Amino acid sequence: GVENDIQVHSHFCYSDFGDIFPSIQRLDADVISIEASKADLKLLDVFKAHGYSNEIGPGVYDIHSPRVPS
Prior knowledge:
Elements: E1 9-12, H1 17-27, E2 31-35, H2 44-49, E3 55-59
């Protein structure tokens, strides 16, 4: 029910993307952001293997880290 000129974003944290990938594709979000810092960006391999064609914003900073970036 969303018009084509509206961009839909979704965010996922700490998920087994291989298990939920079909559901992610059905969301048809224009952009998803995922927590990827703890997995050294290896989570992106799942999206590549499944041929995910929408945009992905990988998180590169662990929000649970006590280190505050400059």
